[in-house]
Amino acid sequence: MNGKAGSRGFTLVEMSIVLVIIGLIIGGILKGQEIIATARQKAVINQVNAVRAAANTYFDRYRSLPGDDPTAKTALDSNLNNGDGNGALESTAGTANGIADDVSGSLENYTFFNALVAANLLNGGQVTASSAAVPANLKFGITALPASPISGAGLTVVYAQHSGDGVGATSVTTHWLRVQKSPTTPGNSVSPRTLANIDTQTDDGLPYTGGVREDSLAATCPAAVAGAGVKYLASDNVTCVPVFVITQ
Q1: Using 50, 70 and 90 to split pLDDT, how confident is the model at 94?
Q2: Which of 4, 54, 87, 142 has the greatest number of CB atoms lying within 10 Å of its CB?
Q3: Sequence-ordered list of residues with C-beta below 8 angstroms from that of 142, at least 6 positions apart, any chain
Q4: Which of 32-36, 155-159, 242-246 is the least confident region?
Q5: Sequence-ordered list of residues with C-beta below 8 angstroms from that of 127, at least 6 positions apart, any chain
Q6: Which positions ≥6 away from 145 have C-beta within 8 Å?
Q7: Mean pLDDT, residues 141-165 taken together
Q8: Rg, Å, the chain Cα set
Q9: CA dihedral in degrees (119, 125, 130, 131; nearest 10)?
Q10: Residue-range domain boundaries for the chain
């Protein structure tokens, strides 16, 4: 026979099966990404709670805040610098953002973490000797500043005012734990969607009120600059710096 068998294409059933398989694969990838994001958010919450607990334990033991402790060098570790005991973790801070722009290697706000590490109350950092209490090259996880579960970010602390939403008694001056990309400036570390999820799980879900807030009073993370009931943007762009009340 000189004729050739005709080529056979996919049937509708076969094409449907392929599309279903592709859909399942895509769905699995998206679900996996969601699981990873949720786990990272929970890890941030757990780390913040761990620092809170460590600071409270330190206060119970030594009757001073870590970093502010005027007897830390003699009572705890000779590598520490003593604080002034005034109840506030001072830094060389300005007021450019919602809370002070904190230079995290300066004065007591760096010693806060140094003291917690020295007291074996916080993992993930290294005690820095008093002759170099502020390392020239601050790095998260290598100096006393702990690295965050957010890639490339870490923790700093500052005593400062957050002016809130401008409505009622939402302006708060306290100690804030901040998750930021740079050790010395409050660089954006998370998306509005991520911070909204963290805020909703642990606080009131609003960027300018409660104990979980967005650092900057700029409309890149919340949907407006200020005002009661302002929401986070529905965005996955990294435009937010989370801050958490750590001590009253």
Answers
A1: very low
A2: 54
A3: 126
A4: 32-36
A5: 77, 79, 80, 114, 117, 118, 144
A6: 104, 110, 113, 125, 138, 139, 154, 155, 156, 183
A7: 88
A8: 24
A9: 160
A10: 17-247
In degrees and rounded to multiples of 5, residue 242 shows phi and psi of: -75, 140
- Establish how many alpha carbons lie within 13 A of residue 191's alpha carbon, considering only the half-sphere containing its beta carbon: 11
Q: Which residue has the higher pLDDT, 57 or 28?
A: 57
CA-CA distances (angstroms) from residue 189 to 2, 72, 77, 151, 210? 70, 32, 33, 8, 20
Mean pLDDT of the chain: 83
Angle at 143 between CA 195 and CA 100, to 5 degrees: 45
Question: CB neighbours of 124 closer than 8 A, spacing ≥ 6?
Answer: 141, 146, 147
pLDDT at 140: 85
Task: Tell me the C-alpha distance between 144 and 123, whole Å.
Answer: 9
More confident call, 29 vs 229: 229
Tokens 């610098």 identify what position?
81
